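hey so i finally got around to running the thing on that chain from the lab meeting. sorry it took forever, my laptop kept dying and i had to restart like 3 times. anyway pasting the input first so we r on the same page abt which one it is
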Amino acid sequence: MTKTPSESASKSTSPRSIPLKCKKCAMLSAAQAQALHGKDGDGCWNPKVCYSRRSYARHRDRKNQQRNRHRQETVIELPPADLAAFADLQYAVLIVYREAGAESIVHAVSAQVWQGQERVAIVQPIHCIGMVPSQIHLYIKKLLALLEDKYGVRKFAALERLDPYLCPIRPCIHYGEVENATV
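ok and heres what got predicted. didnt touch it at all, straight out
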């Protein structure tokens, strides 16, 4: 059974959707995107379009969610919040240095412990290159056990993905500082 052009068009992505290439590009820093897609790259970088399209791709889900909430908003009177009760709340954030995409490898992991709005502790990042996923999961479980003993944190409140180029560990393979290593 063959499909008519109108049937196949309805199954495809909408004309307003952002191309997958642009969505992936939006996760890179502007300098990386220009290097990859500029004159020295594949040549698709257009400064008249790319800055706003990248911003839109990065923020569209959040903006759409805010817009939907605003549409469905009903006025509910809440008692005044006691912010002092939340000042003692401790939570941890897992920071994963990895490229965008589900199949990308984990470059490094780190964590931060927060109490209210103040950072209490930083777990220094470690490189995960050479580790298999089960070893990374085991390290994170041990890290959580340590955080539970010291701060009472049982699980991470959030996961933050950062680009491997932002990895603070030196030497790092992303910075070419391992050139003189002997084999």
